[in-house]
Design brief:
Layout (H helix, E strand, L loop, with lengths): L7 E8 L2 E8 L4 E7 L2 E8 L4 H11 L9 E7 L11 E5 L4 E6 L46 H8 L3 E5 L4 E5 L4 H14 L8 E5 L5 H9 L4 E4 L5 H9 L3 E7 L2 E6 L6
Parallel strand pairs: 3-7, 5-6, 10-11, 11-12
Antiparallel strand pairs: 1-2, 1-13, 3-4, 5-7, 8-9, 8-10, 12-13
Helix pairs in contact: 3-4, 4-5
């Protein structure tokens, strides 16, 4: 059975100076392990569903296949519930979130790098799902943050993505067509200035908080991540696992706290 695209969770909601418990839903984001002829090829971050189409599109874009006849068989996780009539799909892989493409002949072009695509085009270079948590450490408690401070940071942020001191002063603001790229620029500047790990700062992003942004900010030691948009399910799970305070829907005087709310006092 396919998992819901927007699983329900419970959050702590700050609204007009008051806390309340509230139900919420987050967009599903999970890793998809791609294999070619039984060997690990890449990890794709995506919302589950239409994984066969996604896999074929990536292989076509990489020049590995050019027609359906290039594919002998496609094996996929049994839980995906996917089938096709154009060619054979064997939904028998026991492990979740896996696709194994077997070619009818040699690849048109040998993959020379780890292809990886995400829902926001981030997280480059990971081949195994386990690699996505590499070098991450549980974040320390850190000093408390006044929740009244967060809404004002969006006004300062405008269209950029930046890091602010816990007192609300901007440390670094960057813009990029990809939100993950903007985070990389901020972290790079912090590295050059000797400010990493950035435990006394708050990262504010202008869009959604996907897995890759949470991962990058945890790696940089940032204990509070606030997003104007919604987080994904995998972003919430990662933030909770590594004790990062994750704030979403930061608009006006209200926001939701999806992970580690104890820092906001």
């Amino acid at each position: 059975m396919a998992r819901p695209a927007a699983p329900g969770i419970r959050v702590r909601r700050w609204d007009a100076g008051k806390w309340s418990d509230s139900p919420d839903a987050v967009v599903t984001e999970e890793p998809l392990q791609l294999m070619l002829n039984g060997e690990d090829l890449s990890v794709v971050m995506r919302t589950p569903g239409h994984d066969v189409e996604l896999t074929l599109g990536l292989l076509y874009a990489e020049g590995i296949v050019r027609k359906l006849g290039d594919i002998q068989q496609l094996r996929i996780s049994a839980e995906s519930g996917e089938s096709e009539t154009a060619f054979q799909v064997d939904a028998s892989i026991v492990e979740s979130n896996q696709v194994d493409v077997h070619l009818a002949g040699v690849p048109r072009r040998k993959p020379e790098r780890s292809m990886l695509s995400s829902s926001a085009c981030g997280v480059c270079g990971a081949v195994l799902i386990e690699d996505l948590r590499r070098d991450l450490s549980v974040l320390p408690p850190g000093p408390p943050v006044d929740p009244k401070l967060l809404p004002g940071l969006v006004e300062q942020l405008r269209s950029g993505q930046g890091v602010f001191e816990r007192g609300g002063n901007p440390v670094c603001v960057r813009e990029d067509i990809g939100r993950h790229n903007a985070v990389d620029k901020v972290v790079g500047r912090m590295l050059m200035e000797g400010r990493l790990p950035a435990r006394d700062t708050i990262l504010v992003v202008s869009g959604r908080a996907g897995y890759e942004i949470v991962q990058k900010s945890i790696t940089a030691g940032i204990v509070v991540l606030a997003a104007v948009g919604a987080p994904s399910s995998l972003a919430v799970a990662l933030a909770r696992e590594f004790n990062q305070t994750l704030v979403g829907f930061l608009r006006g005087e209200r926001f939701n706290v999806y992970a580690a709310p104890d820092r906001l006092t």
